[in-house]
Write a structure and sequence with these properties.
The chain is α/β, with parallel strands linked by helices. 52% of the residues lie in helices and 14% in strands. Strands 2-3-1-4-5 form a five-stranded parallel sheet, sandwiched between helices. It is globular, with a radius of gyration of 15 Å. Bound molecules: shikimate-3-phosphate.
């Protein structure tokens, strides 16, 4: 049951969460939270450095704490880190304060979008379609189970994707 107006964009790295979140927030006068950026600002170091210094579990705790601070009335679009829906408590926190949109993409699409980046510790040394496909397959059941709505992003513009999210209503 949807209890708030926040919108949580979930999906694999490179699914387009940041771009779509920015557009939705702008066109609807909503606040924007980019989880990775907020955590980096709070910790005063890049995600890769947080992983290196404190380990992944510490980073996952920061994600959970951030989600639990959100309230149903916050009127915010949240671009979630790709690993957020892997924890049941995160999904529960998102459900309590808004609805969850899964942005899907094929491994080849993801690879093309992330191949020249170096900001994601999980992909360093693993920057290939096979690794992305395997991790995506492992995560897919949780992405799907968390989603109120799934929107495919392959070969589509940000405008088209936003329109589909809007057409699904209740924004
Ligand atoms: C992660 C995704 C990243 C970032 C971190 C871990 C993941 O965010 O939170 O590198 O586990 O999929 P994006 O999905 O915004 O790239």
């Amino acid at each position: 049951m949807q209890q708030g107006k926040n919108i949580f964009l979930i999906g694999f790295m490179g699914a387009g969460k940041s771009t779509i979140a920015r557009e939705l927030a702008q066109s609807h006068g909503m606040r924007l939270i980019e989880m990775d950026e907020q955590i980096e600002a709070q910790e005063r170091m890049p995600i890769a450095k947080i992983f290196e210094t404190h380990g992944e579990p510490y980073f996952r705790q920061l994600e959970t704490a951030l989600l639990e601070r959100l309230r149903p009335e916050d009127n915010t679009v949240v671009s979630c880190g790709g690993g957020v829906p892997m924890r049941a408590c995160n999904v529960e926190a998102m459900r309590k304060s808004g609805r969850i949109v899964y942005l899907s993409a094929q491994p080849e699409t993801i690879y093309e979008r992330v191949r020249h980046t170096h900001t994601r510790p999980l992909l360093e040394g693993n920057m290939n379609v096979a690794y992305i496909a395997a991790l995506l397959e492992e995560r897919l059941p949780k992405y799907k189970a968390a989603a109120d709505l799934t929107v495919c992003t392959d070969g589509r513009s940000a405008g088209e994707i936003c329109e589909e999210i809007l057409a699904a209503g209740r924004l």
